[in-house]
Amino acid sequence: MMQRPLALTLGEAAGIGPDLTLKAWLGRLELALPPFYLLANPAFVAHRAEELGLRVPIAAVEAGGAREAFATALPVVAIGGPLTTAPAKPDAASGRAAIASIRQAVADVMSGSAAAIVTNPVAKAALYRTGFAEPGHTEFLANLAHQATGKTARGVMMLWSPELAVVPVTIHLPLRDVPSHLTSALIVDTARIAVRDLRERFGLRKPRVAIAGLNPHAGEEGALGEEDASIVAPAVEELQAQGIDARGPLPADTMFHAAARASYDVALCMYHDQALIPIKTLAFDHAVNVTLGLPFVRTSPDHGTAFDIAGSGRGDPSSLIAALRLAARLAQRSLASERNEPIDESNR
Hints:
Distance between the termini: 22 Å
Number of strands: 12
CATH class of the largest domain: Alpha Beta
Largest sheet: 12 strands, mixed
Radius of gyration: 20 Å
CATH superfamily of the largest domain: Isopropylmalate Dehydrogenase
Strand content: 5-15%
Structural class: alpha/beta
Helix content: 25-40%
Shape: globular
Number of helices: 12
Order of helices and strands: EHEHEHEHEHHEEHHEHEHEHEEH
């Protein structure tokens, strides 16, 4: 059993994260959720609960007291500084609070106070107004991990659900720029990180990797583009030479039906929408964003700040609940792997 609680970051205070956190805590018993604490301003959280009409007691605690408090109150570990941000109105204070929450979560998990990190959605514009220099959430986490360990960490985004797991090799790029950024080395490195974490954290003995082609019909033997033969195929060959169960390049349009999904554990896709469209079609409400390649477990709901419904009470906590459950599961397996303890897990 996992003994340490999960550290849940505030995310963008003007967004849906605080609302979903309160709802998740209310369902903790019925859903048998793992203990977690929120890194935030306790007064702000109490005020949001009152605005939403949710009867959620707030317990201002240190991380070490979160597990005991969780049964009767939402544990909140203070990150300092006043916060009066209103729903749908991000401001400088909300950006600073989001950054402070992430920093403290990493410090807690690296010190052993927390088992894993779950992050509520952030608003990049609010972060940038504070002078935030990282491209995004994942890069910031990787940089904090580097500062804590002295070792370079490359975060790899995986979207996971029981129906499908996908990893985009390139992420937030205009489609026209993808071919110039795509290399065999990048594909190999991304696949290796994914396979390592699928083994060590998901408990898969020999992960099976399906690798999508870049072009329609995986290039149609060069008739529809040469990148699949010159970039993707050599990467697949290199992975196979390293003993990884990889196949491709595969036509992406036939990779995601039920029979195809049963033949692999993760789909490696060449660009953002090639990966995210199928999983959001299959698992929109319960897919989880998992960052692979970090020295700690990090999950996140697979949605944004939802400013349009923040503070309305209409937010669905399903993806946050799935992120909390998956973080606890991965943290437990990661600890078992470190201790060389056997894990009773099939290859699925």
